[in-house]
Amino acid sequence: MKKDGHVHTPFCPHGTDDSFELYIETAIKKGFSAITFTEHAPLPEGFVDPTPDKDSAMPFSDIDRYLSILLDLKKQYKRDIDIHIGLEVDYINGFERETAQFLDKYGPFLDDSILSVHFLKLNGQYYCVDFDEHTFQKMAELSGGINHLYELYYATVLKGVVSDLGKYKPKRLGHITLIHKFQKLFQATFDEKPYIEQIFAEMNKRGMELDVNTSGLRKAFCGEIYPPEDIIQAAKKQSIPLVYGSDAHSAKDVGSDFSLFEKMV
Ligand SMILES: [Zn+2]
Ligand SMILES: [Zn+2]
């Protein structure tokens, strides 16, 4: 089955206004038989989005409309493509209870979801790790160096994987190596392999899947798939199910670099 399991929508405040129909028709044209829409879930109650425009996720007031539009589209296109209703849910250290409460309420309406880490807590404050290179540099300084920032990132991902977010906790881990986003500017010498192995072991216990996310290839300072091939091979060895995701924020990127994924898995 050819599926794009990580696709954003016009509900994304930092994405494009491309319509759902345009995303869906692009997927059909590129020969996909399934697509999961995974808009950034509303951030948990009490969490203040640290990005300047506070546009990391859809506002809470949009969630009902998002779900009902997708339910209609799912019926409308059912002969052409399987549309899965999903969300990309943030794991935020310290907001587990609020996130679980949200999932308890909205999880029953979801077919398929992703758990991702975009926010890290440093000196009691939250920062968005993939926002831009300046924020990244500041985060590295506050951490005491790039290697320490990598360590904090992987420790947070591990915490997310083992966290109790209730029965609707997403089954797929998003872009496990997002910390590589600015790697051409800031090179780490941190040995991430032991963390990755530990994360895989915990994912395995929970039957979690891995998002193989090609968006890093479209980022100037990354130039690499999330995760790179050696980590994909390590996941295969652990029998972790791999799910292709374009992480498209515009219709033209649906299915992007799928052939690369096919070659690796
Ligand atoms: Zn996004
Ligand atoms: Zn993401």
Automatic annotation (TrEMBL):
<dbReference type="Pfam" id="PF02811">
    <property type="entry name" value="PHP"/>
</dbReference>
<keyword id="KW-0378">Hydrolase</keyword>
<dbReference type="GO" id="GO:0005737">
    <property type="term" value="C:cytoplasm"/>
</dbReference>
<comment type="similarity">
    <text>Belongs to the PHP hydrolase family. HisK subfamily.</text>
</comment>
<protein>
    <recommendedName>
        <fullName>Histidinol-phosphatase</fullName>
        <ecNumber>3.1.3.15</ecNumber>
    </recommendedName>
</protein>
<keyword id="KW-0028">Amino-acid biosynthesis</keyword>
<dbReference type="InterPro" id="IPR010140">
    <property type="entry name" value="Histidinol_P_phosphatase_HisJ"/>
</dbReference>
<keyword id="KW-0368">Histidine biosynthesis</keyword>
<dbReference type="GO" id="GO:0004401">
    <property type="term" value="F:histidinol-phosphatase activity"/>
</dbReference>
<feature type="domain" description="PHP">
    <location>
        <begin position="4"/>
        <end position="215"/>
    </location>
</feature>
<dbReference type="InterPro" id="IPR016195">
    <property type="entry name" value="Pol/histidinol_Pase-like"/>
</dbReference>
<dbReference type="GO" id="GO:0000105">
    <property type="term" value="P:L-histidine biosynthetic process"/>
</dbReference>
<comment type="pathway">
    <text>Amino-acid biosynthesis; L-histidine biosynthesis; L-histidine from 5-phospho-alpha-D-ribose 1-diphosphate: step 8/9.</text>
</comment>
<dbReference type="InterPro" id="IPR004013">
    <property type="entry name" value="PHP_dom"/>
</dbReference>
